[in-house]
Amino acid sequence: MEFDFEEIRCYKNEEVHDALERLSNEKPFMKILSTIYPLMPKDIIKQKLASFHSNYEFQKEMVFPFLQYLEANMTKGIELLGLNKINPEDSYLYISNHRDIILDSALLCGKFIERGMDTVEIAIGDNLLISPWIEDLVRVNKSFIVKRGLSSRQILQSSQRLSAYIEHTVNKKKQSVWIAQREGRAKDSNDRTQESLLKMFNMNGTGSFTENLSNLNICPLSISYEYDPCDFLKAKEMQQKRDNPDFTKNPMDDLINMETGVMGYKGKVVYEITGTINRDLKIIASQTSNRNEQITLTAELIDKRIHANYTVFANNKIAYDVLKEEEQRFVKEYTEAEKNDFDRYLSFQICKIELENKDEKFLRSKLIEMYANPLINKLQTYPDLNNGGE
Question: Could you give the CA distance from residue 234 to residue 257 in angstroms, rounded to a whole number?
Fold first, then answer.
């Protein structure tokens, strides 16, 4: 079946110049660039934008310097591990846990640019395209659109097209793709792959489930943030949903989350590429021919790869010991000063939360869970872990 990708695909290189010209006439976009590059006059910014004729040029010359600024000022450093597990000449479908709306994929692309590698195409939900100019910006930045909020029939058609586009991108365009393992961020950091995502990947294939997924060169990717700048916003949302099960975020909430995630302090950030799952998919195919069982086993496999490759920080160990008070498993692996610092950090984050019926005990417990869950999940892959796996 032939699909029309026009509505969802990222811009081709020959479309970049016109898109950037449109963006240079958008006041909100120019205001953002003037904030990012305060010493660069607007007319110089416009000239620079007009000089780009490819996505990669725009990313390398305009986006990458800002990512370098973020690394220098909003982190303790960003590491990319596991490059020995991929071939830079091949294309992959990277599936990662999801912490930050913008930076999960952006920082990964920054590390690829740093090494002279090509960047990835990025899956982005259309719920984030709050203004028309934002769609121009993300499509210039090698993002393709995932449609949300559709009817059952529309979901099926949209998923088939998305499946075809991802396969086309990896195998025909020879471009790697990044996608989160689930729709939306895991607010409690308990990262789990949605089986519906794997079913979508399978839709465009002509072979068995495991053959179709092998054809995509799936490579799980583990992302670890020492501090999540949006942790207090996630805790706030958890209380709002607890108090009102029908609560949903509005576009302004998404904007606040995006800005907070980008400009907030993240501590150390670590990306770990875990290698493809192709060999494991053959093992799954030999274990069962039941497709539903294969889907479940594949989701569990991706989860284990992500969990096993988390970087564990002192915060995670402290949160684990607070949550499992009787165990005190890691108490010898952090200092009292580190514990006090983390406690003050939680109090500071809770102070930022504005709610009418603010439940501080609940909010603190949710923040602790956020920092404990990555370590809890890692322990399920390494039960004898004694030192946080570092």
Answer: 9
- Which string of DSSP letters, residue by residue, matches 294-315? HHHHHHHHHHHHHHHTPPP-HH
Q: Where are the alpha helices (DSSP H) in the chain?
A: 13-23, 27-36, 42-50, 55-58, 64-74, 103-114, 132-140, 152-171, 195-202, 209-214, 231-243, 251-263, 278-287, 291-308, 314-323, 336-351, 360-381
What's the rounded Cα separation, in Å, for the pair 46 and 25? 9
Domains of the chain: 60-228+264-311 (3.40.1130.10), 230-247+313-390 (no CATH)
Sequence-separated (6 or more) residues with CB below 8 Å from residue 295: 195, 198, 199, 209
Quote the pTM value.
0.95
Token pair belonging to 362: 């609940």
Q: How far apart are CA 147 and CA 137, in angstroms?
A: 17
pLDDT at residue 252, rounded to an integer: 87
Residue 384: other Cβ atoms inside 10 A: 5
Written as six digits, the tokens of 11 are 């811009």
Q: Is 142 within 8 Å of 120 (Cβ atoms)?
A: yes
Calculate ∠ Cα 362-366-372, nearest 5°. Answer: 140
Order across the sheet with 77-81: list the strands: 77-81, 268-273, 218-225, 93-96, 177-180, 121-125, 143-146
Cα distances from 119 to residues 9, 41, 55, 105, 240, in angstroms, run 16, 28, 9, 10, 37
CA dihedral 72, 73, 76, 82 (to 10 degrees): -50
Hey, how many other C-beta atoms are within 10 angstroms of the C-beta on 389? 15
Pairing of strands 121-125, 268-273: unpaired
Token pair of 195 as six digits: 């089986």
Backbone angles phi, psi at 220, to 5 degrees: -60, 150
- Fill in the amino acid letter for 60: K
Sign of the C-alpha dihedral computed for residues 375, 376, 377 and 380 taken in this order: positive
Q: Is 328 helix (H, G, I), strand (E, B) or coil?
A: coil
Give the span between the Cα atoms of 52 and 140, in whole angstroms: 11
Q: Which residue, among 206, 372, 388, 370, has the nearest Cα to 312 in the 3D structure? A: 388
Q: Tell me: the pLDDT tens digits for 253-268?
A: 988 999 999 999 999 9
pLDDT less than 50: residues of the chain: 387-390
Alpha carbon distance 2, 324 (integer Å)? 54
